[in-house]
Batch of 2 targets.
Target 1
Amino acid sequence: MSDFFAAEKLKYRHTSMKWITVIMPLAAVFLTAWLTHSYFAVDSYNWWYTGLYPGFLGIVCSMIGGKDARKKNYTIWSLPCSMKKIWDAKILVGAVISGAAMAFVVIFTIAAGMMLEKVLHVQFIFAPSLKMQILAGIIIWLTTLWEIPFCLFLSQKTGTFLMLVLHMGFYVVLSAFVSLKPWFALFPGAITARLMCPVLGVLPNGLILQPGQMTYSPGLAEINSLFIGIPAALLWFALFWAGSRRWFERQVAPK
């Protein structure tokens, strides 16, 4: 499997993927620091996982799947190897890139928060601890892995533009509405926003998790949601991976 992974990575060595992986997190954190002050840290993560991160993953998956899809996968038909392993390699590359981007968001947010506080003397009204920020980064990455096979499949079926429209619409609507429901784990797009309530103390709409805020309810603060949401998100990831893998093999395997 390592050979397939290495071969897949080589396809993007001279593309803009590395730059996007750094620039999009940096731009997101800079924009948040510029537009918000007292709630910078929570806004940085909230803006990222509710909109910017799904868009980033959509772009990355269109690049990963686009090279072969533009040639109708003819370039891999003649390869003496399993089509399933090729698909697995694409998903693993996406997972590594998404993890790197999430790590950059955490690093840039922590660094920018320190600079705002110590250099510009900004007083934060609410800021999660470094430990909780790191934990949030790990959870966001784990609970959004399902988007990689999902977006890779959509990019193969519909093309980049329609995939981004469908994915962003699906994600934004579910993260804003379904994440507030007790059955949030039934929809993968709602899981991340729900789990950030107890971890970062922020509601899906970006408001602080405290009584009196719009959409607040005591159940949103329960840490037990982590033990439901994380396994559910990984299960969705496994289901999308297995389903898209089987579909890909049937589509590109020589008849």
Target 2
Amino acid sequence: MTRGQRNHNPLNIRRSDRTRWLGQLRQQHDREFVQFQSNLFGFRAAFRILHTYITLHHLHTLKEIIYRWAPPEDGNNTVSYIATVSERSGIRPAERLEWGNQTALVAIVCAMAYVESRMTDIDVGIVQRAYLLAC
């Protein structure tokens, strides 16, 4: 089981003193990453971040989003990350994304959970519910 799976944080969202997430466990034992009550809340947090990327920072492509999520200057292989998410989601790196496109965003988040936490048996219904909770 990966760290993201143990923490119910499929996209490995880092802890911050400025943010208290819905569904975040009161006792946080992981010093770097948020621990959630369930994957539903971990996915919801990921969608809230993506909502900010798209609506506030105007990042409208998979490439732009992943360069912000996992920048190369943090030691990430961002090019490989983009290629894997694109392949698994069916979304082209330069395809324009809007917040209201639930189908595309759910596919992207599922693919990112694979990259971040090696999750392959994702309950898509939970991810869809998380998207709706994030709206």
